[in-house]
Amino acid sequence: MISAKEQDPGTAYEHRVLRVQKEANARGEFYTPREVPLILNAVIHASIGRPKSVYDPACGAGSLLSGIDAGSYFGQEINPETAALCREQVPDIDIAVGDTLEAPGHRGRKFHAVASNPPYSLKWDPRPDDRFPVLAPRQRADWAFVQHSLHHLREDGIACFILFPGALYRGGREREIRASLAHRLQSVVRLPANIFLRTSISVDLVVMGQNLGKVLFVDASGEFEKCPRQNRVRPEKIIDVLTNRREAYLFSRMVSPEDVDHANWTPPRHVDTTPPQEPVDIRALNEQVRKSHARQKRAMDMWDEMTAFMEGGPEPDFLGNRQVFRERLEGTARQSETEQ
What we know:
By secondary structure, the chain is α/β, with parallel strands linked by helices. It folds into 2 domains: 4-270, Vaccinia Virus protein VP39 (Rossmann fold); 282-339, no CATH class. It has helices at 4-7, 9-26, 35-48, 80-89, 142-151, 166-169, 173-181, 235-244, 267-270, 282-310, 322-330, 335-339; strands spanning 54-56, 73-77, 94-97, 111-116, 153-163, 185-190, 204-208, 215-219, 224-225, 232-233, 252-255. The chain is elongated. The N and C termini lie far apart (95 Å).
């Protein structure tokens, strides 16, 4: 028998979302925490204003698209049940059901913005297509989703992707793809670890669109609040730096195109977050060394006295007397006592 709580529409929806999330996690897909679309929405609006349209080629249950303020919504999802959940979260969405890479549902369309958290290292069947100037590896479709999305992006549009770090530093064809898209790279942000349910992996926000000259790298791995099950992103500083495209001490850096390392697009490669060391007081250090050597010599002298005692010599004054032992070791004993 179904309880009244399970009959409640809101509760039933939550149960379906949790079940679908579990299935999606097994495929390398992850439910997007609400602070992430908040950041993406701010970046998109700061760049192009309210987008006329926004597209997600792997929209899942709509957790990312629902956080973007746009004129119209478009997406594609391979799982029909997940697509139904997306329609509940984003009622006006034009959603295609099917494999985005194999059977794209919006051919010929161009969108004002893209916001996507594509599956991590999804296996696919690479085939020549005008969407893919360079084919991504068979074992990792991350950059296939990115290239597909950029193919559907207007010239004046902006695209935001949540990618796992491996996509930003793996070699081979993935490095070749990164080099081919370098002129469209605007920003890369390292988000905190453990912000997704059931995975503690860090992720990177990659922003692409028109060439803005320098690339903004942001290491926001420390911008989070510790919560029982997962970390919660603190979006305020991230949004401020991204929307104003500014440098912040030990946090973000503007990098000239020729200085961007295409072998590694991750923010830790381009942003030094190590605080500078305090200047060393050489005199104080030398004094510490002198005292240490003196203490070591006193300890050796006391050891020699003990050795002599064990060989029949006089009993040391510190034997059985803790106070004298400490004073002798630390050099605080009165001169008269040490001479006796």
